[in-house]
Protein backbone atom coordinates (compact mmCIF):
# COMPACT_ATOMS: atom_id res chain seq x y z
CA UNK A 1 0.00 0.00 0.00
CA UNK A 2 0.97 3.67 -0.27
CA UNK A 3 1.55 5.64 2.94
CA UNK A 4 2.86 8.96 4.18
CA UNK A 5 5.81 7.80 6.27
CA UNK A 6 7.78 9.69 8.90
CA UNK A 7 11.30 8.57 7.97
CA UNK A 8 12.95 10.70 10.65
CA UNK A 9 11.62 13.06 13.29
CA UNK A 10 11.97 16.80 12.84
CA UNK A 11 10.70 19.06 10.06
CA UNK A 12 8.18 18.20 7.33
CA UNK A 13 11.04 17.13 5.04
CA UNK A 14 11.07 13.90 7.06
CA UNK A 15 7.70 12.90 5.55
CA UNK A 16 7.95 10.60 2.54
CA UNK A 17 5.13 9.24 0.37
CA UNK A 18 6.10 5.65 -0.42
CA UNK A 19 5.23 1.97 -0.34
CA UNK A 20 4.58 0.31 3.04
CA UNK A 21 3.64 -3.30 3.86
CA UNK A 22 -0.09 -3.97 4.11
CA UNK A 23 -1.32 -4.48 7.71
CA UNK A 24 -1.63 -8.06 8.92
CA UNK A 25 -5.21 -8.88 9.98
CA UNK A 26 -5.51 -10.92 13.18
CA UNK A 27 -8.65 -12.83 14.31
CA UNK A 28 -10.26 -9.87 16.13
CA UNK A 29 -9.08 -7.18 13.70
CA UNK A 30 -10.92 -5.17 11.07
CA UNK A 31 -8.95 -3.96 8.05
CA UNK A 32 -10.18 -0.56 6.89
CA UNK A 33 -9.67 0.96 3.47
CA UNK A 34 -8.95 4.54 4.52
CA UNK A 35 -11.01 7.09 2.62
CA UNK A 36 -10.38 10.10 4.87
CA UNK A 37 -7.84 10.88 7.58
CA UNK A 38 -8.20 14.12 9.52
CA UNK A 39 -5.03 15.83 10.68
CA UNK A 40 -4.46 17.07 14.22
CA UNK A 41 -1.59 18.88 15.94
CA UNK A 42 -0.84 15.49 17.49
CA UNK A 43 0.43 14.41 14.05
CA UNK A 44 2.85 17.32 14.06
CA UNK A 45 4.00 16.48 17.59
CA UNK A 46 4.63 12.86 16.57
CA UNK A 47 6.56 13.98 13.50
CA UNK A 48 8.64 16.54 15.41
CA UNK A 49 9.23 14.26 18.39
CA UNK A 50 7.91 14.69 21.92
CA UNK A 51 10.16 14.68 25.02
CA UNK A 52 9.77 11.44 26.94
CA UNK A 53 7.66 9.82 24.23
CA UNK A 54 9.81 7.82 21.82
CA UNK A 55 8.23 6.77 18.53
CA UNK A 56 9.84 3.97 16.50
CA UNK A 57 11.04 5.16 13.08
CA UNK A 58 9.85 4.88 10.38
CA UNK A 59 6.22 5.47 11.40
CA UNK A 60 2.76 6.38 10.08
CA UNK A 61 0.71 8.93 12.03
CA UNK A 62 -2.97 9.88 11.67
CA UNK A 63 -5.68 9.11 14.24
CA UNK A 64 -8.92 10.50 12.74
CA UNK A 65 -9.84 7.70 10.34
CA UNK A 66 -12.97 6.90 8.32
CA UNK A 67 -13.36 4.41 5.52
CA UNK A 68 -14.79 1.09 4.42
CA UNK A 69 -14.23 -2.39 5.83
CA UNK A 70 -11.86 -4.17 3.45
CA UNK A 71 -11.41 -7.43 5.39
CA UNK A 72 -12.30 -8.93 8.76
CA UNK A 73 -10.54 -11.37 11.05
CA UNK A 74 -11.90 -14.87 11.59
CA UNK A 75 -13.51 -13.96 14.95
CA UNK A 76 -15.12 -10.65 13.90
CA UNK A 77 -18.93 -10.73 14.06
CA UNK A 78 -20.15 -7.10 13.97
CA UNK A 79 -18.81 -5.94 10.60
CA UNK A 80 -18.82 -7.02 6.98
CA UNK A 81 -16.83 -5.99 3.93
CA UNK A 82 -18.08 -2.67 2.59
CA UNK A 83 -19.44 -1.28 5.88
CA UNK A 84 -18.79 2.43 6.41
CA UNK A 85 -16.89 2.95 9.66
CA UNK A 86 -14.97 5.43 11.79
CA UNK A 87 -12.34 4.36 14.30
CA UNK A 88 -11.79 5.18 17.95
CA UNK A 89 -7.98 5.43 17.73
CA UNK A 90 -7.36 4.85 21.46
CA UNK A 91 -7.19 1.05 21.42
CA UNK A 92 -6.12 -1.34 24.20
CA UNK A 93 -2.81 -1.83 22.37
CA UNK A 94 -2.06 1.89 22.02
CA UNK A 95 -3.24 4.86 20.01
CA UNK A 96 -3.43 4.65 16.25
CA UNK A 97 -1.14 7.26 14.76
CA UNK A 98 0.78 7.78 18.00
CA UNK A 99 1.84 4.33 19.20
CA UNK A 100 0.49 2.11 16.39
CA UNK A 101 0.58 2.77 12.63
CA UNK A 102 -2.18 5.23 11.79
CA UNK A 103 -4.43 6.37 9.00
CA UNK A 104 -2.12 8.34 6.70
CA UNK A 105 -2.07 5.27 4.50
CA UNK A 106 -4.35 3.36 2.17
CA UNK A 107 -5.17 0.73 4.83
CA UNK A 108 -5.15 0.48 8.62
CA UNK A 109 -6.04 -2.31 11.01
CA UNK A 110 -8.03 -1.79 14.20
CA UNK A 111 -9.50 -4.10 16.86
CA UNK A 112 -13.20 -4.76 16.25
CA UNK A 113 -13.98 -3.25 19.67
CA UNK A 114 -12.88 0.19 18.44
CA UNK A 115 -14.63 0.21 15.08
CA UNK A 116 -17.83 2.32 14.96
CA UNK A 117 -20.51 2.22 12.24
CA UNK A 118 -21.18 5.52 10.48
CA UNK A 119 -24.94 6.21 10.59
CA UNK A 120 -27.02 7.35 7.65
CA UNK A 121 -26.92 11.09 7.23
CA UNK A 122 -23.21 11.36 8.10
CA UNK A 123 -20.59 11.24 5.35
CA UNK A 124 -17.06 9.93 5.77
CA UNK A 125 -15.47 13.37 5.74
CA UNK A 126 -17.72 14.50 8.60
CA UNK A 127 -17.02 11.29 10.52
CA UNK A 128 -13.24 11.69 10.12
CA UNK A 129 -13.41 15.10 11.81
CA UNK A 130 -14.84 13.72 15.03
CA UNK A 131 -12.71 11.31 17.13
CA UNK A 132 -9.67 13.33 18.22
CA UNK A 133 -10.75 16.98 17.89
CA UNK A 134 -14.48 16.80 18.60
CA UNK A 135 -14.10 13.92 21.05
CA UNK A 136 -11.50 15.92 22.97
CA UNK A 137 -13.72 19.01 23.06
CA UNK A 138 -16.75 17.05 24.22
CA UNK A 139 -14.87 15.46 27.11
CA UNK A 140 -13.30 18.79 28.09
CA UNK A 141 -16.60 20.65 28.31
CA UNK A 142 -18.99 17.96 29.58
CA UNK A 143 -16.86 15.71 31.79
CA UNK A 144 -14.06 17.95 33.01
CA UNK A 145 -15.22 21.59 32.98
CA UNK A 146 -18.89 20.58 33.47
CA UNK A 147 -20.02 23.63 31.53
CA UNK A 148 -23.57 24.69 32.42
CA UNK A 149 -26.41 26.48 30.68
CA UNK A 150 -26.04 30.22 31.28
CA UNK A 151 -22.29 30.19 31.94
CA UNK A 152 -19.74 32.13 29.90
CA UNK A 153 -16.85 30.36 28.18
CA UNK A 154 -13.75 31.71 26.44
CA UNK A 155 -12.32 29.46 23.70
CA UNK A 156 -8.74 30.12 22.61
CA UNK A 157 -7.64 28.74 19.25
CA UNK A 158 -11.29 28.63 18.19
CA UNK A 159 -10.48 28.44 14.47
CA UNK A 160 -8.93 24.95 14.71
CA UNK A 161 -10.65 21.59 14.96
CA UNK A 162 -10.87 21.40 18.77
CA UNK A 163 -11.83 25.07 18.93
CA UNK A 164 -14.59 24.74 16.31
CA UNK A 165 -15.96 21.78 18.23
CA UNK A 166 -15.83 23.60 21.58
CA UNK A 167 -17.73 26.59 20.15
CA UNK A 168 -20.53 24.39 18.81
CA UNK A 169 -20.79 22.13 21.86
CA UNK A 170 -20.77 25.10 24.26
CA UNK A 171 -23.45 26.85 22.19
CA UNK A 172 -25.62 23.72 22.30
CA UNK A 173 -25.23 23.59 26.10
CA UNK A 174 -26.64 27.12 26.38
CA UNK A 175 -23.41 28.89 27.31
CA UNK A 176 -22.39 32.36 26.17
CA UNK A 177 -19.40 31.78 23.87
CA UNK A 178 -16.45 34.14 23.44
CA UNK A 179 -14.25 32.80 20.62
CA UNK A 180 -10.68 33.93 19.88
CA UNK A 181 -8.96 33.75 16.50
CA UNK A 182 -6.13 35.44 14.64
CA UNK A 183 -7.97 37.34 11.90
CA UNK A 184 -11.18 39.25 11.30
CA UNK A 185 -12.17 36.71 8.65
CA UNK A 186 -11.87 33.82 11.10
CA UNK A 187 -13.79 35.80 13.74
CA UNK A 188 -16.61 36.39 11.25
CA UNK A 189 -16.85 32.68 10.54
CA UNK A 190 -16.93 31.90 14.26
CA UNK A 191 -19.81 34.33 14.67
CA UNK A 192 -21.65 32.53 11.86
CA UNK A 193 -21.02 29.27 13.72
CA UNK A 194 -22.78 30.60 16.80
CA UNK A 195 -20.16 32.40 18.90
CA UNK A 196 -21.83 35.27 20.75
CA UNK A 197 -18.65 37.36 20.83
CA UNK A 198 -15.35 37.10 18.96
CA UNK A 199 -11.89 38.51 19.68
CA UNK A 200 -9.11 39.00 17.14
CA UNK A 201 -6.15 38.44 19.45
CA UNK A 202 -3.72 40.02 16.96
CA UNK A 203 -5.44 43.39 17.45
CA UNK A 204 -6.56 43.45 21.09
CA UNK A 205 -5.50 41.84 24.36
CA UNK A 206 -7.87 38.88 24.53
CA UNK A 207 -7.77 38.77 28.33
CA UNK A 208 -8.76 42.42 28.79
CA UNK A 209 -11.44 42.18 26.11
CA UNK A 210 -12.96 39.01 27.57
CA UNK A 211 -12.97 40.67 31.00
CA UNK A 212 -14.86 43.61 29.49
CA UNK A 213 -17.31 41.38 27.63
CA UNK A 214 -18.06 39.50 30.87
CA UNK A 215 -19.07 42.76 32.56
CA UNK A 216 -15.75 42.79 34.47
CA UNK A 217 -16.95 39.72 36.33
CA UNK A 218 -14.70 37.21 34.58
CA UNK A 219 -15.65 34.15 32.55
CA UNK A 220 -16.69 30.84 34.09
CA UNK A 221 -14.56 28.59 31.88
CA UNK A 222 -11.51 29.03 29.66
CA UNK A 223 -10.50 26.44 27.06
CA UNK A 224 -6.74 26.76 26.60
CA UNK A 225 -4.88 24.11 24.61
CA UNK A 226 -2.20 26.53 23.42
CA UNK A 227 -0.17 27.16 26.59
CA UNK A 228 2.87 29.38 26.07
CA UNK A 229 2.30 33.10 26.49
CA UNK A 230 -1.50 32.68 26.61
CA UNK A 231 -1.39 30.91 29.99
CA UNK A 232 -1.24 33.80 32.47
CA UNK A 233 -3.68 36.00 30.48
CA UNK A 234 -6.12 33.07 30.59
CA UNK A 235 -5.88 32.93 34.39
CA UNK A 236 -6.56 36.68 34.57
CA UNK A 237 -9.74 36.23 32.52
CA UNK A 238 -11.42 33.85 34.97
CA UNK A 239 -13.94 34.81 37.65
CA UNK A 240 -13.60 33.72 41.25
CA UNK A 241 -13.78 29.89 41.33
CA UNK A 242 -13.56 29.76 37.56
CA UNK A 243 -12.21 26.73 35.67
CA UNK A 244 -9.44 26.52 33.10
CA UNK A 245 -9.42 23.29 31.10
CA UNK A 246 -6.49 22.22 28.93
CA UNK A 247 -5.83 19.32 26.59
CA UNK A 248 -2.55 20.35 24.97
CA UNK A 249 0.13 22.97 24.47
CA UNK A 250 0.52 23.92 20.83
CA UNK A 251 2.42 27.11 21.76
CA UNK A 252 4.59 25.64 24.53
CA UNK A 253 4.16 23.17 27.38
CA UNK A 254 6.26 24.96 30.03
CA UNK A 255 4.84 28.49 30.37
CA UNK A 256 5.43 30.87 33.26
CA UNK A 257 2.46 31.08 35.59
CA UNK A 258 1.14 33.41 38.27
CA UNK A 259 0.07 31.55 41.39
CA UNK A 260 -1.57 34.65 42.86
CA UNK A 261 -4.55 34.36 40.54
CA UNK A 262 -4.94 30.67 41.31
CA UNK A 263 -5.11 31.04 45.09
CA UNK A 264 -6.79 34.47 45.36
CA UNK A 265 -9.57 33.56 42.91
CA UNK A 266 -9.67 29.89 43.98
CA UNK A 267 -9.29 28.76 40.39
CA UNK A 268 -9.48 25.16 39.21
CA UNK A 269 -6.96 23.98 36.59
CA UNK A 270 -8.35 20.89 34.86
CA UNK A 271 -6.50 18.57 32.53
CA UNK A 272 -8.37 16.58 29.92
CA UNK A 273 -6.98 13.71 27.89
CA UNK A 274 -8.89 11.57 25.44
CA UNK A 275 -12.48 10.55 24.82
CA UNK A 276 -14.57 7.39 24.72
CA UNK A 277 -16.36 5.38 22.05
CA UNK A 278 -19.60 6.68 23.59
CA UNK A 279 -18.39 10.25 22.96
CA UNK A 280 -17.81 9.49 19.28
CA UNK A 281 -21.20 7.79 18.96
CA UNK A 282 -22.91 10.80 20.56
CA UNK A 283 -21.10 13.14 18.19
CA UNK A 284 -22.16 11.06 15.18
CA UNK A 285 -25.76 11.40 16.38
CA UNK A 286 -25.28 15.17 16.77
CA UNK A 287 -23.98 15.44 13.20
CA UNK A 288 -26.83 13.31 11.83
CA UNK A 289 -29.33 15.56 13.65
CA UNK A 290 -27.48 18.70 12.40
CA UNK A 291 -26.79 19.90 15.93
CA UNK A 292 -23.07 19.95 15.05
CA UNK A 293 -21.53 20.65 11.65
CA UNK A 294 -17.86 19.69 11.33
CA UNK A 295 -16.01 22.47 9.53
CA UNK A 296 -13.60 21.36 6.80
CA UNK A 297 -10.87 23.79 5.84
CA UNK A 298 -8.81 22.01 3.16
CA UNK A 299 -8.50 18.62 1.48
CA UNK A 300 -5.21 17.11 0.32
CA UNK A 301 -4.27 13.91 -1.48
CA UNK A 302 -2.13 11.51 0.55
CA UNK A 303 0.82 12.33 -1.71
CA UNK A 304 0.39 15.98 -0.65
CA UNK A 305 0.48 15.21 3.07
CA UNK A 306 3.65 17.19 3.67
CA UNK A 307 1.96 20.35 2.36
CA UNK A 308 -1.06 19.63 4.59
CA UNK A 309 1.10 19.53 7.72
CA UNK A 310 2.97 22.66 6.68
CA UNK A 311 -0.37 24.45 6.39
CA UNK A 312 -1.31 23.39 9.92
CA UNK A 313 2.02 24.61 11.27
CA UNK A 314 1.34 28.02 9.69
CA UNK A 315 -2.17 27.98 11.20
CA UNK A 316 -3.45 28.87 7.74
CA UNK A 317 -6.69 26.93 8.11
CA UNK A 318 -10.14 27.27 9.62
CA UNK A 319 -11.48 23.92 10.79
CA UNK A 320 -10.16 20.48 9.92
CA UNK A 321 -7.52 19.60 7.34
CA UNK A 322 -8.34 16.29 5.66
CA UNK A 323 -6.06 13.88 3.78
CA UNK A 324 -7.68 11.57 1.23
CA UNK A 325 -5.68 8.42 0.40
Task: Give an overview in words.
The chain has 325 residues and is of the alpha/beta class. The chain has two domains: 159 residues, Quinone Oxidoreductase, Chain A, domain 1 (Alpha-Beta Complex), CATH 3.90.180; 139 residues, NAD(P)-binding Rossmann-like Domain (Rossmann fold, 3-Layer(aba) Sandwich). The chain contains ten helices and 17 strands. Strands 3, 4, 5, 8, 9, 16 and 17 form a seven-stranded mixed β-sheet that branches. Strands 12-11-10-13-14-15 form a six-stranded parallel β-sheet, sandwiched between helices. Strands 1-2 form a two-stranded antiparallel ribbon. α3 crosses α9. It is globular and about 60 Å long.
Give a quick account of the main beta sheet: strands, pairing sense, barrel closure. Answer: 7 strands, mixed
Distance between the termini: 10 Å
If classified by CATH, what would the architecture of the largest domain be?
Answer: Alpha-Beta Complex
CATH superfamily of the largest domain: Medium-chain alcohol dehydrogenases, catalytic domain
CATH topology heading of the largest domain? Quinone Oxidoreductase, Chain A, domain 1
Low-confidence stretches: none
The coarse silhouette is: globular
Over all CA atoms, what is the radius of gyration? 20 Å
Roughly what percent helix? Answer: 25-40%
Average pLDDT metric: 96
Secondary-structure-based class equals alpha/beta
Tally of strands: 17
Secondary-structure map with pairings?
Elements: E1 2-6, E2 15-19, E3 29-38, H1 41-48, E4 64-72, E5 84-87, E6 90-91, E7 94-95, E8 107-111, E9 115-117, H2 124-128, H3 130-144, E10 152-155, H4 161-173, E11 176-181, H5 184-193, E12 197-200, H6 206-213, E13 219-223, H7 231-237, E14 238-246, H8 259-264, E15 268-271, H9 277-288, E16 296-301, H10 305-313, E17 320-324
Parallel strand pairs: 10-11, 10-13, 11-12, 13-14, 14-15, 16-17
Antiparallel strand pairs: 1-2, 3-4, 3-8, 3-17, 4-5, 5-9, 6-7
Helix pairs in contact: 3-4, 3-9, 6-7
Amino acid sequence: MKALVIERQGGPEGLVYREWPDPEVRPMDVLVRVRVCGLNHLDIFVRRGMPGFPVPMPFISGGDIAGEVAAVGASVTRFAIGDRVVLNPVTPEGMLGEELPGGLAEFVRCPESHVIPIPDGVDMEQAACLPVAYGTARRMLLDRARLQDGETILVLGASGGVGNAAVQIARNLGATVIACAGSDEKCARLAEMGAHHTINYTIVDFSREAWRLSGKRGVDVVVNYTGGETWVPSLKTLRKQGRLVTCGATAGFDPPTDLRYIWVRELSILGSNGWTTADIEALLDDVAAQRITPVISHRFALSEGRAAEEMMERRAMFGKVLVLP
